[in-house]
Amino acid sequence: MKFFRNLVNLVPVALLGAAGAMAQSSDAVISAIQSFTSVSSNLADTVNDLSIVNFATDGPKIPAGLENITTAVTSFNAEFSPSTPPYPDDVAIEVVDVLTTFVEVHQQLLELIIGKHSLAAQFALTAPIAEALRDLEAVVDTFAFDLIALIPTEQGPALAQVNALNVTFTQTVTTYDS
Ligand SMILES: *[C@@H]1O[C@H](CO)[C@@H](O)[C@H](O)[C@H]1NC(C)=O
Ligand SMILES: *[C@@H]1O[C@H](CO)[C@@H](O)[C@H](O)[C@H]1NC(C)=O
C-alpha cells in the first residue's frame, strides 16, 4: 500500500549516491533531505506490509533499511563544512519546509516500526532493530545540528522539528529495548 505517495513527491533512490557531491549548496542540502524522505517513505511501505506471513523473510528489511538510511546520512554528514556561509532567510524557509516533511514521514516510519514490535519479538529481531535505530538516531542528530547551523534565521522552527523527531526516536528505541 503506497499511502505515503500523497505526502511526498518521491525522489529516485539513485539521488542518494549523488547527494554528497555539492553539499555546500542549499540545492544539494535540500535534495539530500528529500532523498532521505524518499527512502524513509519506501521503508515505511515495506514495514507497513509486514505480517506474520512474511515476517521471517521480510522482517530483516527493517534493520537493513534503517542501516541504508544511516549510511546515506553518514556520507552526507561528511560533506558539511564549517566554512559554508549561512543561507539567506528565503532559502532557510525552504529548508525548514523539506525538513518538516522529512520529520513527518520519518515519524510515520518509526510509528509503523513500533507497531511491529511484538512480531519482531516473536522472530528475535528486536535487538538488531534497536541497534539500527540508535545508529540512525545518532547520525540524524549530527545532520540536524549541522543543518541548523546553516539556517540561523530559522533555528527556532527547525529545532522544533528536530525535537519532535527526537521524541519519536526515543519512544521507538525504548519500545525495542524492552
Ligand atoms: C539497502 O541497500 C542495498 C544496496 O543499495 C539494497 O540492495 C537493499 O535492497 C537495501 N535494503 C533495504 C531494505 O532497503
Ligand atoms: C535528542 O535527545 C538526546 C537525548 O535523548 C540528546 O542528546 C540530543 O542532543 C537530542 N538531539 C537534538 C537534535 O535535540
Topology:
Layout lengths: L14 H4 L7 H23 L6 H4 L2 H17 L11 H27 L1 H6 L3 H25 L4 H23 L1
The structure holds 2-acetamido-2-deoxy-beta-D-glucopyranose (2 copies).
Helix content: over 70%
> What is the terminal-to-terminal distance?
29 Å
The total count of helices amounts to 8
Q: What is the number of domains?
A: 1
Q: Unreliable stretches, pLDDT < 50, 5 or more residues? A: 1-23
Biggest sheet architecture = none
- In round numbers, the mean pLDDT is 88
Order of helices and strands: HHHHHHHH
Task: State the shape.
Answer: elongated
Number of strands: 0
Bound molecules: 2-acetamido-2-deoxy-beta-D-glucopyranose
Any idea what the radius of gyration is? Answer: 16 Å
Signal peptide: 1-23
Keywords: Signal
Protein name: Hydrophobic surface binding protein A-domain-containing protein
What does this protein structure show overall?
It contains eight helices and no strands. It has 178 residues and is mostly helical. The chain has one domain. Helix 4 runs parallel beside helix 7 (126-150) and helix 5 packs parallel to helix 8 (155-177). The model is unreliable at 1-23 (pLDDT under 50). It binds 2-acetamido-2-deoxy-beta-D-glucopyranose (2 copies).
Give a quick set of tags describing it.
178 residues, mainly alpha, elongated, binds 2-acetamido-2-deoxy-beta-D-glucopyranose, Hydrophobic surface binding protein A-domain-containing protein, signal
